[in-house]
Queue: 2 jobs
Job 1
Amino acid sequence: MKITLACAGGMSTGMLVKKMEEYATSQGIEADISACGLSELEEKVTGSDIILLGPQVGYQLDDVKKEYPDIPVLVIEMMDYGMMNGEKVFKNAQEVIASN
Amino acid sequence: MSETKKSSFINGLNVFVNKFSNNTFVKSIANGMMMTLPITIVGSLTTIIGMIPGLPEIVMKACSLGTSISSNLITIYVIIGISSAMAREKKGDMISSIILSLAAFFVLTPITAFDIGQEKPAMAFELTYLGSKGIFVGMIVALVVTWVFAKMVEKRITFRMPESVPTAIAKTFEAIVPAAIIFIVVIMISTAFAETKFGNVHDFIYTNLQTPLEALGGSIWSALFIMFLSELLWFFGIHGSMVVGSVIAVLFTTQAYANMEAVAAGEVATNIINSFFLDAFKGPRALALAVILVWMSRSEKFKSIGKISLVPSIFGITEPMKFGIPMIMNAIIFIPLTLSAAVCVGIAYVATIIGFLPVISVNVPKNLPTFLSGFMAAGWQGLVVQLIQFVVVLLLYLPFMKKLDSQGVAEETATLENK
């Protein structure tokens, strides 16, 4: 499972990535989770099962969906992002990937 | 506001911000200017090192070289950066676009004969046109040339090669017609200007566009307004600095590079309001907030958000707090949120005009830890200004945070009592 998070500079999402990785490992799930800035998305996105957008760049949702019509794109919930709730964000992503 | 009115306003705002940020030209400026960052930061480093008193002359010479090459040729780097960003946007051939943009720029830049005491004069570009004074011409040329080039190739305004010609060769020929057209047009423009009183495009743009824009845009009031605007966008959950980044680039960077050039030439920098100044003295708001959360709050929620946010806040990262407290769409925190950046810039501005803080002419890397950034930008005075900003921001946020905190405590107590 490959999850790509994108925000403005990839820095705050990087923290969330760590939390998500911790949760995934604790559940024994193999996942390749990474974060990048929106401008690098094109290079980093190949093979991704899902794209997660930081809420502060949520206004880009439609454009990102248009760029990558085959990959589900989600905006991370503000509360989950603020509390760096890796578990919830990971579970959400899992559900969406499963239903696709 | 009713819920539906609120959400349609937010939607409208999101759509507007989206259109603005994704506008090809805005995006190219923002991304293009970012690419010149490594050079300007290293140039700033050499400037800072060069200011250390008592250095051996050879080190000073080396530093001075670093500073002058980064600031005196900034237009060239900007052209390459912006042209490549635009080429990426319009899916044009990047290298051809860059070469064409540079060529067009050089066509518009006067080559003069300089008497260097030898039998033949040296033909050269004046450094003035390649530095901060040339940025606008460079920006416009890079944007327009790259855009037109990509459009022409897209519309197949080109030699049509027979099918049997290998693709690589056909592509090269494809580029010839658009390049020729653009080149000829630029030569005509340059020749035409030579006949007018301006003499060349640079002086025309500088007098009629750059100078008024700098005066209008480079004032303390525009700076305060933009800081306010950027934080206002954050209130709606939109990454403010990302959106206003290109506006800042257009309005405030020429002043910054002009400062760098002045220092490189051994003169005094004079533009107080510039992009380096804004970057370094937007204020340690993240750290102040985190400190309030960790040490001045009673609710469990605030204390835990504080713990998560403390280390990132040193690097100016605020998202955990923006979304965790939350500050987004939180009417109670509206006032300190929207005003703190402007207040900090105001403090730094006053510190400069009273002569305490030196005019900022170096580019400190974004996200450099608080207090270190102030020190790097302006020595101990910079550090002191940031300390003052830290205290002011803390005091500004405190009453509002206390209110939210007591709400949090009340909720937590209620939950406990209901258990």
Note: The domain at 2-99 of chain A is CATH 3.40.50.2300 (Rossmann fold).
Job 2
Amino acid sequence: MTPGKQEKQIDLLQGTLDLLILKAVSLGPLHGYGVLLRIQQLSGEELVIQQGSLYPALYRLEHQGVIASEWGESENNRKAKYYQLTRAGRERLAGETLKWNRMAGIIGNILRATPEEA
Amino acid sequence: MSLRSFTTRMVCQSRSWFRGVFHRARLEREMDDELGCHLEILTNELIRSGLSPVKAARRARIALGSTLVHKEEMRASLGLRWWDALWADLRYGVRMLRRSPGFTAVVVLTLALGIGANTAIFSLVNAVMLRSLPVRDPQQLVMPAWTAHNWPNGPGISSYGDCRPEKTSQDRGGCSFSYPMYQAIATHKDLFESAMAFAGPASIDVSGNGTASIAHGELVSGSYFGTLGVQPAVGRILEPDDEKPGAAAVAVLDYGYWKQAFGGSPSVVGRTIRLNDVLFTIVGVADAGFTRLTPGKAIDLWVPLTEIRQLGIPWGGHGADNGWWLAVVARLRPEISRTRAQAALNALFVNEALHGAKPAWKATDDPHLMLLPAEKELMGFRSHYGKPLMLLLGAVGIVLLIACANVAGLMLARGAARGREMAVRMAMGAGRRRVIRQLLTESLLLSFVGAALGAVLAYAGASGLAAFFAHNSFEPLRINLHPDARVLLFTIGVAVLTGIGFGLAPALRGARANMSAELKGTSATTTLRRRGRRFGLGSGLVAAQVALSMVVLMGAGLLLRTLDRLHSINPGFDTKNLLLFSIAPELAGYPKDGIPQLYAQLQRRLEALSGVVSVSYSSDAILDGGLWSGGVDIDGQASKRVHTQILSVGPDYFHTMRIPLEMGRALGSADMAPTERAAVVNQAFAREYLGGRDPLGVHIGDPNTPQWMIVGVVGNTKYLDLRSADAPTVFFPLTKGGATFEVRTATTPAAFGAAVRKVVNDLDDAVPVMQMRTQTESVDHLLFSERLVARLFGLFGGLGLALAGIGLYGLLSYEVARRTREIGIRTALGAQRRAVWVMVVREGLGLVIVGVAAGCGVALCVTRLLKSLLYDVRPTDPATMAAVATLLLIVGVIACSAPAQRALRVDPMTALRCE
């Protein structure tokens, strides 16, 4: 999170933020900042997420009913909004994960291709 | 995505959306809290890493970015953005409209008139044509009807205007059946859950409840209410046992009649009343929701059909087995299709009709029975009023178009004034779509306010029209105008279409604002644009209004000419100063033998009233909605049977009616004795049926009735209506049954009503006076459709004309104001004042002429829809067209003259200085 590491970090691929948020909250209820930390931690501090784009994404996912929110207390006794996965969210995560793995495999295969003698 | 996950997502999203909309304050607070929490945690972390609190807070804010932008995106995530925009547009629109109250008032009023007129006519169309039967599952009900090439041989047929009139000219048809036929249908339990029969209404004399009065009673089978699924409001409804021979005489009251005649008292159950002088026990009141079976028919009470003989009602030979007098409605079993039931009933009917004990037809007549949906077949007054109502709906549609064009013109002019505002908006980054949306929101707002006001006008207007209908009907009429979902949807739909209709063009024009010109403030003065404007949208809208007004006014003109022609028809008798009323002493229990004396006495006493010229009576009044016709045998020979109109008349009839006696003598008091056999025919009868013979002394009649001898010939009169050609008519002496009295007065006949009523009551107060009316009123009733459509077309045409005039005036005023400088320069350069005046008027009249020409074209195409209402006038009558065109031109000149006058007053110096 500290600015010094920024050179090593890479930006998020378009459209993957939703999937990462779903994965992050699937491991247990989190507030917004917690989601940010969890993703960064899971990525081994390799990924940077625009903090501003996190909340619209959270609201979008809640609007779609894949995550649900609840107000609770944070570590330092502050009121915070906690998100967790709903049933529809679990289905979505499983489906998206499958899709992602397939896509990654296919793209990996393509990129590994070497020129053949004609 | 599976259907299930799609629906759960939809449910989630709409729930979340509504939460966002309705708990907006909480949502905003939570967004602030959540972002605040994020900032706080981040700041604390930064402090822990060694930054000063101030620096840490600053760093955290930078890392998070603009919370305003984030919140906007969070709202967008919840799908709230378009709602917010709409809400803002609406608030802005309300503010704009409040800033120009004059403009708003004119537009709202115009729209209220347009939309209100449409809603009013539509609620009548809804009440008369569309409303479904107020009974249980009306779509299950079917109604049998027969057709054949000829009238059935033998049975007397009574019908009461319940079903659709026969469509083709070759075939005869009806929906009246005999009692045995009804029973045969009702016993088909394999096809029908149940079936019922009804006949009427009959005018029934009610006594034993205050003063004697007339009620409209329907004769029904015991299964009537059960089949329809109608429940009692009080007491019980009729049951099949009430129809059995020997059952007690009972009656069920209509809810409205119960309220009105019995004050809604529940103790009415068990009371006895006299109906046609027979004791009946009231057993209950039908449910309030059961307002009608046949559209428009008002029924006051129901009695079992087996009481027909007791009540002295002559239908079907007093309900004889061979009389065809019952309309039948059956409820299909759910699993049976209509075609299947029809096949079964048709076989039954054809067999009975061709091979029964008394065959009604020969096989070549090809009799058939059809089973039709009751909702469609029960026409009632729909067959009467359907056509004029559709015409009126068309006319109000045109009025609404005119109103739209008018308002669009106003919006355009206002749009030009707001060009700068739009240019500023677009310069600040508003997209064209956004500007169009803003302008459309404003016009929709206007049209909805107009529609709300219009709905109020519509309710008043429709009630007035319904009263006009009822006042002009020969039969009691009931129109249920309660607004329902259909009327509401119609009004909303019209409001939306109207808002888009008048708002779209100005909105598109607004979004085309020439940004740099508007901002520099030069656009309004460039004369270059004027050339393009000359035939621009505003001018086109005015011409369209003129053209549309022309169409409606043309319709009004044609109908006025028709009415004029109809009124100039000579009915063959003097319709002025003639008061009519009917009595039915036989039904009131008056002894049969006493009736001729009663009539003679009444005639004498009425004649003694001052101001009464002479008095007579007849079985029916002519030109009063009724017609009696039948066959008579010339020379008493069946081979010379002819069809003729018939009327029974009292002494002094021709003199009272002022029908000229052409030959022989009229009927006098001596001819009223039952043994006398004198009859009178009209000239049409003598000419058509007696050829060149001397009519006097010719015998007419048929083998069953004694021979009548023609003793006189009178002039032709109209009988059923004014349009029919003079038809052969026979006048017999009236010796029995009810009568309509004709009172010839010296002055206004309506003023004699009370005196006449008193004479009748003094003579016998058990005999109620029915339907007091003047002959002129009756003729007006006959011309109801023509008068209704003429009146409303005139009203709507006038409205359209006024709107078009205002539109023209507005356009020219605007033009003159815009061209003040040009006019000033022209005047300064020496243009004659006259030339300036002509210039403005020419521009205005040019539009009117274009509009009139287009209107003529459209009118030529559409006025033939009026054809069935017209008489002796062609739908394309050139004289009417010329008159309407002249009217429009005159209005055009008037509308032009004020702006032209203003142009004259332009002072060149001020005009040049003002910019």
Note: Chain A touches chain B at residues 1-2, 31-33, 50-53, 55-57, 59-60, 62-65, 74, 76, 78-81, 88, 91 (CB under 8 Å).
